Amino acid sequence: MRRSSPAHSATRRSLSAALVAGFALTSAVVAAPAAHADEWRDQQYWLEDYGVTEAWETTRGEGMTIAVIDTGVDSSHPTLSGAVVGGTDVSGAGDGGAPVDQVATEHGTLVSSLAAGRGTSAEAEEVAELVEGDFEDLDEDEWEDWWEDFESDLEEIYGEQWQDEVDSEALEEFEETRTAPRELTRDEAGDDGVVGVAPEASLLSISLLLEDPNPYGGGTEEQIAEAVTWAVDNGADIINMSLGSGFQEWPQSWDEAFLYAEENDVLVVAASGNRASGQLSVGAPATIPGVLAVAGVDEQRGISEDSSSQGIAIGIAAASEPLVGAVPGGGYAEWNGTSGAAPIVSGAAALVWAANPELSATEVKHRLLSTADSEGADGVDPEYGNGVLNVAAAVNGEAPAFEASAYPTLAEWVRVHRRGQVEETDQEEIPEDAGVVAGPEGEPRAMPEASRASTAQDWAGPVALSAAALLVVAVITMAAVHYNLARRQDP
């Protein structure tokens, strides 16, 4: 029977406690003025600045699936209508990946909208419901009556200026053919509501509970491992983790789950963390080899003073302030943080993969990194990584030749770094038929000892324990540090 050493057990308990306790999100919530859906869209500067709209001429992410490991997703939100194709709760507190009642309930919905929001407003969703059905069997009088009621409904939804809100050509085509065109119910030009980088990708919602202790089930360590495994088993191509910690190490129990993602060619994207929460250096899971760590920049592409940690694990930077996104109940929010930068990169990965389905996960990552706009120091900058995301170049541009050796894998890291961590075993009696002769009873003779210099092994254990203890009081955050919540009321 195998057992852990006391030091190993103490370290694991401290690390687990830090994970569970630290995921309590501290946020400044300030009421923001209400805005019309197209005003929220106007604030999504990264769609043009990062070449997203140009990449949409090639693909909008169809056929790709992004798993969002977070606080749950409101799949009924108009901009996420039809986007969420599955989900689960790994905390025991929720149901099917819907938002779990906790701090930052809206976080998962915000994140999801930036990855794969459809860009549909509540008004457009109401119009879509109005035009559902088969009108070919209506006679002329019945059709005229229906159309009169339809126009009255449009006025009720949009107000007296409803003609300005509906595509006139699409409306005319609908009246002539009695077949509602898609652009009447969902604006493909992208002028309505918040839209994700990959608006035709599918989403999986995996909800966690950020509470210590978790009265419903396992702690954060166990929840994350289960969430990653579930995402892989349920068809995720990309896993978005807009959550982070204040330490570089990760529980050994995560090795198996993240190796499972790596072995099944699933790309994991994680936020680097936020300085404002005290997280100055990139923390796990963004430090795990193979994971694409995302830093945050402002609109002028300067590193966010509040919303971006730094470190050699940084792979790429993307917009982290100011951001907008969807919140449960049909509203939208202004927010900041690498929590938002990560799903922008996840959406970009979905576009790259949809346009180049023959690529592996590491090759998709290579295209994103090698085509990024250079910022910071030459080479890999500790703040910008390989530079700022350029979606158009990643999807359609020329990328340098891929060299697998340039991208470390978790499998290799585990082979090198975990091999010495062998758990102690219980001592057992020597079997009689083993052919081994026991030595004489009594005290064993002392072995000669040469004087030796202090080595890393002398202090590595105590330092590891001390560091783990400090983690308990470290601030660990899910990357969205500040966001101004504004719930948009239906007219």
From TrEMBL:
The keyword Disulfide bond does not apply. Gene3D superfamilies: Peptidase S8/S53 domain (3.40.50.200). Residues 61-127, 191-387 form the Peptidase S8/S53 domain. The active site is at D70 (charge relay system), H107 (charge relay system), S339 (charge relay system). Keywords: Hydrolase, Membrane, Protease, Serine protease, Signal, Transmembrane, Transmembrane helix. It comes from the Bacteria. The chain crosses the membrane at residues 459-481. InterPro entries: Peptidase_S8/S53_dom (IPR000209), Peptidase_S8/S53_dom_sf (IPR036852), Peptidase_S8/S53_subtilisin (IPR051048), Peptidase_S8_Asp-AS (IPR023827), Peptidase_S8_Ser-AS (IPR023828), Peptidase_S8_subtilisin-rel (IPR015500), TAT_signal (IPR006311). It holds the Pfam family Peptidase_S8. Residues 1-31 form the signal peptide. The keyword Iron does not apply. Residues 423-432 have a biased composition (Acidic residues). Residues 421-454 are annotated as: Disordered. PANTHER family: CELL WALL-ASSOCIATED PROTEASE (PTHR43399:SF4), SUBTILISIN-RELATED (PTHR43399). Belongs to the peptidase S8 family. This is Subtilisin family serine protease. It comes from Nesterenkonia halotolerans.
